[in-house]
Amino acid sequence: MFPEHRPRRLRGTAALRRLVSETTLRPRQLILPMFVAEAADAPRPIASMPGVVQHTRDSLRKAAVEAVRAGVGGLMIFGIPRHHDAEGSGATDENGILNVALRDLRAELGDDTVLMADTCLDEFTDHGHCGVLDENGGVDNDATLRRYADMALAQAEAGAHLLGPSGMMDGQVGVIRSALDQNGYTETGILAYSAKYASAFYGPFREAVDSQLKGDRKTYQQDPGNAREALREIELDISEGADAIMIKPALSYLDIVRAAAENSTVPVAAYNISGEYAMVEAAAANGWIERERTVLEVLTSIRRAGADMILTYWAVEAAAWLD
Ligand code: PBG
Questions:
Q1: 196 carries an active-site annotation
Q2: pTM for the complete prediction?
Q3: Using CA atoms, how far apart are residues 153 and 176, in angstroms rounded to an integer?
Q4: If you measure from the C-alpha of residue 205 to the centroid of ligand 1, how many angstroms do you get, rounded to a whole number?
Q5: pLDDT at position 248, please?
Q6: How far apart (Å, rounded) are the C-alpha atoms in residues 157 and 59?
Q7: Is-contact 197 220, C-beta < 8 A?
Q8: Which residues of the chain are modeled with pLDDT < 50?
Q9: What pLDDT, in 10s, does the model give residues 98-142?
């Protein structure tokens, strides 16, 4: 008799497949990134991210309530200021768009969701870099850390539960942690973008935040070919006080997500970023792939790689499908 082994036996019915399924995908594991623009008087579509908009304060609040009702695990908020400058002043201004939006959302939602903020200057600077520049035009690590400490305090004061330092400056988690602690924000947490790669997949995000960037981020974000370095970044962030860590992007870095899951002592997030979203949307719009199946397969693969939570622009829609 051949074959002796028949793995297909466990795939024979939907009930059998359900019984032996190894990976769960639940709404609570999905985090919705959202954009709010100071200059918007109506929601503005982002052409390269069909279905995603730059919100007004008001439409942000409504969309956030809907997302929480749909069961998503959290919201990650990005602000787009009307004016950019070299220091990214809007980031630390208590009346800056991101800070007022956080205050709106915390007032509306209280502790019903986990409110997160992008703690990075690139949306606010006129040169588009994640930090401030030195006299040679390079990104000045330690001067940037002082800006991050102030930005973190403004976001904590505005009511964010978790701060998301995404600028890949050395020491950013430690500096933010001590600024928070010294100012009484001991319960405000840090979701550290620990292993963030210099990726071409951020393309549509540049449109999403009206990015002013010329050049690239290769002096601070990681080289796509490096894996060991990600483990070092993760270890440093955890030692500096990260409450959770993130790998970004997700799909081209599933091996890093897996390594993070095996090595991290804190929860692991993965960010299924703008370009990954745009590729699926574009192919689906052309009728080349089935949209819903593809989206769920993408999200399942990130969970299977080991991410506890996934930042995804499909969070609300996927939550409805999974319900
Ligand atoms: C930096 C930041 C970026 C993204 C999230 N935070 C852009 C970058 O590092 O260039 C990208 C998110 C996405 O592409 O969906 N503040």
A1: yes
A2: 0.97
A3: 8
A4: 6
A5: 98
A6: 22
A7: no
A8: none
A9: 999 999 999 999 999 999 999 999 999 999 999 999 999 999 999
**H or E element in which residue 276 lies:** helix 274-285
* Helix, strand, or coil (residue 6): coil
Residue 218 annotated among the catalytic residues of the structure: no
> Which residues line the pocket of ligand 1, CB cutoff 6 A?
118, 120, 122, 130, 166, 202, 205, 217, 273-274
SS3 (DSSP) at 274: helix
Domains of the chain: 24-244 (3.20.20.70)
Question: What is the position in ligand 1's atom list of the atom closest to the CA of 274?
Answer: 15
Structure token pair of residue 105: 């959302």
DSSP 56: P
Distance 13 CA to ligand 1 centre (A): 42
> Separation of 202 CA from ligand 1 center, angstroms?
6
**pLDDT on residue 267:** 98
Is the CA virtual torsion 244, 245, 251, 257 positive or negative?
negative
